[in-house]
Amino acid sequence: MRKYLIGAAAAVSVVVLASNGAMSAGDAVKPPSQNWSFSGFFGTFDRGALQRGFQVYDEVCAGCHSARLLAYRNLTEIGFTEDQAKKIAASKEVTDGPNDEGEMFQRPGILSDRFVRPFPNDEAARAANGGALPPDLSLMVKARIGGANYLHALLTGYKDAPKDTNLPDGMSYNLYFAGNQIAMAPPLAEDGVEYADKTKATVDQMARDVTTFLAWAAEPELEWRKRMGVKVILFLLILTGMLYAVKRKVWSDVH
Amino acid sequence: MSDSKFKNPIVAWIDYRLPVFTFMEHELHEYPTPKNLNYWWNFGSLAGIILVIMIVTGIILSMHYTPHTALAFDSVERIMRDVNYGWLIRYVHMNGASAFFIVVFIHIFRGLYFGSYKSPRELLWMLGVVILLLMMATAFLGYVLPWGQMSFWGATVITNLFSAIPIVGDTIVTLLWGGFSVDNPTLNRFFSLHFLLPFVIVGVVVLHIVALHQHGSGNPIGIDTKSPQDTIPFHPYYTIKDLFGLGVFLIFFFGFVFFAPNYLGHPDNYIEANPLVTPPHIVPEWYFLPFYAILRSFTADALIFLPFSWLMTAKLAGVLAMFASIMVLFILPWLDHSPVKSARFRPIYKQFYWLLIIDCFILGICGAKPAEAPWTYISQAATAYYFLHFLVIIPLLGFFEKTKPLPTSISEPVLKGGGGASVAAGAKPMEKA
Lengths: 255, 433
Description:
- The complex is a heterodimer.
- By secondary structure, chain A is mainly alpha-helical.
- Chain A folds into two domains: about 1-70 and about 140-220, Orthogonal Bundle (Cytochrome Bc1 Complex, Chain D, domain 2), CATH 1.10.760; about 225-255.
- Chain A is about 40% helix and about 5% strand.
- Chain A has helices at about 1-20, 45-60, 80-90, 120-130, 145-155, 205-220, 220-250, and strands at about 95, 105-110, 170-175, 180.
- In chain A, the strands form two sheets. Chain A has a two-stranded antiparallel sheet with strand order 1-2.
- In chain A, helix 2 (about 45-60) crosses helix 6 and helix 5 (about 145-155) runs antiparallel to helix 6 (about 205-220).
- Chain B is an all-alpha fold.
- Chain B folds into three domains: about 1-30, no CATH class; about 40-275, Cytochrome Bc1 Complex, Chain C (Up-down Bundle); about 285-400, no CATH class.
- Helices cover about 65% and strands about 0% of the residues of chain B.
- Chain B has 17 helices and two strands.
- In chain B, helix 11 crosses helix 14 (about 375-400).
- The model of chain B is unreliable at about 415-433 (pLDDT under 50).
- Chains A and B meet through helix 1 and helix 7 of A and helix 4, helix 5, helix 10 and helix 13 of B.
């Protein structure tokens, strides 16, 4: 009897934990699971995908979406050399100031600058996007149920609206978005960017790359964390094994 | 001084003036502990260790955190990105809260199974309930600090509960908020209180340990230690056993910290708080889900609300029920008047104990689900059963249950190799689980 009850309790707890991640809103479809270079115990970010993903972000997404938690100096962490990162930063116009005359002025970006935002404030962003606010992307992968799978599905999930859907002007139909109506027009088009490494820029490839980039943006410590985790767990396994041996020895005269 | 029991002259000199070494000697070497404690007895010291981990990581986090609505969210991200090992410290603190509740819940259910709340340990048990209440308050306050969407809306929902109190309710809520909505003054005072309460917990933990050492640990058989043969010194026997348990726990804990640090959190808390956008489902952290289910199960049309509907609103009934679900633990030592402590010798109680655990899991699931059929009905039934267990079944068992004969001493089953067939055979799977 008790075994069954413990089993039932365990099963119930699994359901509880699983339901934590499965509570998606609206009638959106659950995003399919993808293989990501950064998943699993030993996962690392694919450097090629990171750099291509940055290119997609920079050339496509950054027109509307900020990534305010990232700085240009962070780009050296995804395989760009310091000179390349400096060049990327210098290609951006940063508002600085006030100067000695009390005026704000424009200057080329430097490594310590945060990613330049496309709009000066949320109101300007809304005004330029038909009333919808393009969310900041720095934490997007951590801030959505389904994480990277969801983001990839969303970017590739644009479909023609079913006949009975009344789609308002400026809205697009997306299989994976809660409520299915999204204010973002399909952002990726075949060959929308020209990859420096000559990878074919299909919609799926770009979605995959930019999702990898945004996964890094959300968790830049991921590789370090997993590397340290493997060492810590191995250490603890050995230590705990030894503690168990000592425990057996100490207790041998009691039993 | 020459007759001091300490050989080291410096130790003897100090101890003559400040008896810390006598105290340590007493607590570690002379403090007799029943020899038959199983691994369920590890969770008390584990909880103490987690409390220390939480305080240490918390103090470091507070050095980098800014309690201002405009800066709090970004200051947490700065900890994650730019502070040396900041991500590690924050993930340990964040998952430490969950680990603390896992360990304390197991500690409490250990007490329920083995009757640890019974005479002469009633105050020990009640101090434990006080610690649980303080922990819940601290965890709630702490969850607000990162100022994400769930922080903000969780704070809004929970503080609003107090408005259900007649007459003074709205005043209390205004006082909690420091204004007329959850805003910067709220965040400031929550930070201050979140820093304060852990030290209050430490104080109550000290009392908890003083009360524990007055009569010593209970044990799985639930009979008093009778002779020196029944006990062993805490050190080295239980220090090494607790250390081994700590190792196992840390593997589990760091598994979460390093490989699934956000598994137990809600993604919405990585969206900065926005008073103008309400999340589709406002759910508390997992450890509050059973209490949240009890709170929500009191709706105006609920059967369990009917007996109280002439007296109060459904909202107030829900709030009172939520607090009552913990308050019943306070009076449990008097609700349960069976003279037998351990469930090993209480065959009927044992069945109801497992039913209660299943009931708590069901409440937890209901708390995570949206408030709609069939979950509302399930959580109403589970809430009713929760109180039925403590207020009706437990007192009745004291009258009607036919308990098994108790062994004469702790040594008897222990010497027979971990429990004689007659006494503890039925309880063996529990020890292995």
